[in-house]
């Protein structure tokens, strides 16, 4: 008959069980001084990481998107003042300034605030961390600042269920969305889902209509939809001219036009991103630095 294990025998086993439980437990949210910066990144380790200097474009240089710019700035300003405002989805063509507009609007509204008022904070959450969005909003709920939570290039593919976390966060569950938090997202897709994902639901679901509706309704959680479309040649050249003036580049206008058009033709694209890439190349060839 086997001897009955003693407490000393059981101790190593209990220690291994305790260590395994600690590893499987969700990490605790680290506290951070939200006054440390005006912008943060929500890291995978579930903490706010201050961003000392935000990579942003001045709002005056975002040309060709005037209506979207004015609408988003107005919505952001209402939110900063404590007035009702909508979550916003910026969708459409690549390189047309969707994420740049979010960061520029944040800086613009903070620049308008009255002395003594608290600055609005910007926090970026990466697409792969979207399941932690409810946790982030809960963390920000009791902070005295107003927060823009921003997710760049948001979309969902087949078998990806993390969109449910986004729906929960935008609806706010039983507590409601925190009054001091607004969510902005950019995407190339209007409904955030791949077309084949929607078509697959139609072909395989027991009730195709309801299955598709559940996923497409995600974008309905955004009260503000702003569409970005490919720019015309004139708009593209206007972007080039604005950058040249802002950075005080010395170049012949005819040469500038010819080289800018050749640059866009070789890349098969006209956009704000293409315009800035051309300006970087031009400044380098001219031996001039870009201001700021």
UniProtKB/TrEMBL annotation:
Gene3D superfamilies: P-loop containing nucleotide triphosphate hydrolases
InterPro entries: DUF815, P-loop_NTPase
Protein name: Uncharacterized protein
Source organism (scientific name): Methylorubrum salsuginis
């Amino acid at each position: 008959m086997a001897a009955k294990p003693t407490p000393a025998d059981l101790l190593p086993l209990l220690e291994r069980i305790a260590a395994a439980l600690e590893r499987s437990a969700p990490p605790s949210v680290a506290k951070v001084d939200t006054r440390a910066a005006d912008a943060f990144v929500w890291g995978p380790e579930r903490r706010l990481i201050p961003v000392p200097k935000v990579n942003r474009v001045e709002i005056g240089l975002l040309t060709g998107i005037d209506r979207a710019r004015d609408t988003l700035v107005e919505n952001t300003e209402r939110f900063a003042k404590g007035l009702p405002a909508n979550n916003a989805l910026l969708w459409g063509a690549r390189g047309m300034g969707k994420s740049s507009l979010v960061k520029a609007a944040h800086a613009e509204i903070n620049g308008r605030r009255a002395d003594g008022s608290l600055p609005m904070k910007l926090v970026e959450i990466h697409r792969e961390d979207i399941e932690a969005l409810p946790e982030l909003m809960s963390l920000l709920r009791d902070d005295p600042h107003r927060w823009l939570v921003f997710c760049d290039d948001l979309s969902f593919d087949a078998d990806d269920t993390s969109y449910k976390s986004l729906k929960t966060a935008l609806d706010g569950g039983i507590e409601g969305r925190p009054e001091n938090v607004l969510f902005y997202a950019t995407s190339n897709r209007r409904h955030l889902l791949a077309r084949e994902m929607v078509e697959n639901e139609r072909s395989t679901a027991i009730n195709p209509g309801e299955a598709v509706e559940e996923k497409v309704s995600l974008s309905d959680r955004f009260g503000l939809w702003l569409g970005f479309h490919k720019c015309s040649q004139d708009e593209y050249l206007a972007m080039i001219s604005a950058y040249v003036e802002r950075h005080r580049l010395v170049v012949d206008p005819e040469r500038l036009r010819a080289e800018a058009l050749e640059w866009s033709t070789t890349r098969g694209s006209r956009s704000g991103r293409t315009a800035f890439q051309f300006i970087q190349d031009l400044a380098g060839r001219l031996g001039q630095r870009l201001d700021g």
